[in-house]
Amino acid sequence: MLRTLGSACKTLFKNPLGNRRMAALQQIVDNNERAQALLDSIKSEMSGIQQQLVQRKKQELIKENAQLAKEIESALAQLVRLELQNGKTQIAVPGSRGLCTSAPAAPPATSEKPPAEAPAPKTAKEPKPEKKAKDKKPAAEKPAAVPEAPVDVGRLDLRVGKIVEVGRHPDADSLYLEKIDCGEAAPRTVVSGLVKFVPLEEMQDRLVVVMCNLKPAKMRGVTSEAMVMCASTPEKVEVLSPPAGAVPGDLVYCEGYPRQPDAQLNPKKKIFEACAPDLKTNDALVACYKGAALHVPGKGNVVAQTLKNVSVK
Fold it and tell me: CA within 20 to 30 Å of 19's CA: 2, 151, 171, 192, which one?
């Protein structure tokens, strides 16, 4: 048996044609293996590229949705502002914190008596006609009172702004006079008492967080239309910084408190004063309301530079 196998091998190796066929067959096998490895590599790369494209598209959609929400909020706030300037009253909508413009009141209904007919000449006495009973109109029902929205940070219109112009107030050494771009048609004029705490050069061209729905108020003859939010102690004040990538007009949210700000805060109701004790920075320098971070969706948190566990105002 061994002799027969050895003889067959010698015959195969002695045959040049058989050797070439074996070499060609081996080459085909090697080529198939390399082709299969190349296909597997291409499939792996295509899968990775597909995942990257999906993630990139997802991030683009998130940014686009945030931008659309910001534009809608800004347009709504501007609409309410224009309506207020034109004397239209804003009323709360039942079941939400939003406001709407009240419809003009209908003129009160008046019951006019028909003109009396001229008396007929007296002849024979006629029986007097019976007086018709007057139809009594049902009393109009009074509209139910709209419940007051909860007082929390959701009623504050906090936005990202950029100081495009700043200087000293002409009539007050301790006040800055600023022009702040809040993503609106025109910058807002803001007066801030920060001269003793923040150098003038640090105020120029910086991003800030502003509260935009305070009632405009005159400060030494200049009407201030917003307030710059700061971390504050009696000895030190730091202007809060929006997250990297934020732009003027970005809206600031607080997790757990839906953002539905009043068109304009009523000073008599002291809404901001009620929220102020719970506005603080935490151990990580993040500005919070009742421990929930103030943030710009998709971009990050609002922070102070060094002041921890201090009031935000």
Answer: 2
